[in-house]
Amino acid sequence: MEREIIALILAGGQGSRLELLTKTNAKPAVEFGGKYRIIDFTLSNCSNSSIEVVGVLTQYQPLILHSHIGIGSAWDLDRVNGGVTILPPYTEERGGKWYSGTADAVLKNINFVERYSPENLLILSGDHVYKMDYLKMLKFHKQKDADATIAVTKVPIEEASRFGIMNTYEDYRIYEFEEKPKKPKNTLASMGIYIFKWDKLKEVLMEDAQDESSSHDFGKDIIPKMLKKGYKMYAYVFNGYWKDVGTISSYWEASMDLIKEDPYSPKEEELRLFDGSWKVYSASFAYPPQYIGPSAKISNSLIVEGCIVFGTVSNSILSYGVVVGEKAEIIDSIIMSDAVIEDGAKVVKSIIGPKVVVKRGSIVGNCKEITVVREGEIVMENVN
After folding, report:
1. What DSSP assignment string belongs to 62-106?
2. How confident is the model at residue 42 (pLDDT cuts 50, 70, 90)?
3. Which homologous superfamily does the CATH classification assign to the domain defined by 3-254?
4. Residue 107: strand pairing partners
5. Which residues participate in the annotated binding site?
6. Torsion, CA 237, CA 242, CA 248, CA 254, rounded to 10
7. pLDDT, tens digit (0-9, with 9 covering 90-100), for 111-130
């Protein structure tokens, strides 16, 4: 059972910044890109990187997320020794609490980690969209003999104050961490992806658990404490596409990135769904083939199985089972599973939740801002 590295995916966040999309659903389980859910990208990275033991730490509204992951067969993680394991919060005593922070969540699953006696622990987030080979990061971690390695991406200097910034020497050894600095010294933003030597991390986690002033968070507490103790910590620079889709605007931007003009673009900084060498896997559904009616007009869009389209779809993403009526228009929008856009309805720059019905002749959205309609709503009048 002993492994060189295992992974824990933090997937319990409430996702309050995604507003209506996470009222009844965990953020990592929100639909994305027509046929995926957000967590599929992290799980696929684990599978493609040959990480064979993955624990998924869940908490908020976990039903859809648990059902989606199942036994992990979609990602080749249905294994007898290892595979994917769902790790919901639990208590050994009355009056126990939920996870009180990302570090606390890992500490409370110490028994799971210890089963595999890993040399290294990979900590991941379940709500980021990206493709990454974790074994390349592990190789860097081992070459530096690092106690902790933190993945970073270079962001525009005007955006750096929104992130945790790693200040490093020329060899990328970290000497300072600044959480959302007003005047950032560089643009190396933490991606929330960490590799730790397990014995060193365990020591700091147990110490942090006794600190009543701590928020038990990796970024706010664990990383600064390890720096203060003088641990060898390095920044691993990732040059590929990465986006934290924790807000409506970032979710929207990442979705629109999927339908750029060239789906086969070789550029590293673009999100490429059509790259056969690094596939994104997901649980499949038994929907029939899509049907495109004789009156349909479709351009620059992703339309998956089960969709029936008679109207106009432009620069948009349609998930499973969406129905678009005659003379209906969908422009610059994301339509989630089993939604119905009736005859003559118009949807512009909007995110339409699952099972929404936009009634005949109604108009949703405008060209200025993103409009969101929550799951199951029936829209009978104009919504802007």
Report:
1. -HHHHHHHTTSGGGT---SSSEEEEE----SSTT-----SHHHHH
2. very high
3. Spore Coat Polysaccharide Biosynthesis Protein SpsA; Chain A (3.90.550.10)
4. none
5. 99, 164, 179-180, 190
6. 150
7. 999 999 999 999 999 999 99
Q: What is the pLDDT of residues 255-299, one digit of tens each?
A: 999 998 677 777 777 888 888 889 999 998 889 999 999 999 999
Lookup: tokens for 66: 């648990």
Sign of the dihedral defined by the CA atoms of residues 247, 60, 121, 49, in that order: negative
Q: Look up tokens 């595979």; give the residue.
A: 83
**Which regions of the chain carry the CATH code 2.160.10.10?**
291-379
Q: Which residues contact 220 (CB under 8 A, 6 or more apart)?
A: 179
Assigned CATH class of 291-379 = mainly beta
Which amino acids are annotated as binding site for alpha-D-glucose 1-phosphate, given as ranges? 99, 164, 179-180, 190
Both tokens of residue 195? 């590799």
By the 8 A CB rule, do 25 and 67 touch?
Answer: no
- Give the DSSP H or E segment for 172: none
Q: Which segments of the chain belong to CATH 3.90.550.10?
A: 3-254
* pLDDT, tens only, 287-345: 999 999 999 999 999 999 999 999 999 999 999 999 999 999 999 999 999 999 999 99
| Burial of 210 (C-beta count, 10 Å sphere; 0-12/13-18/19+) | exposed
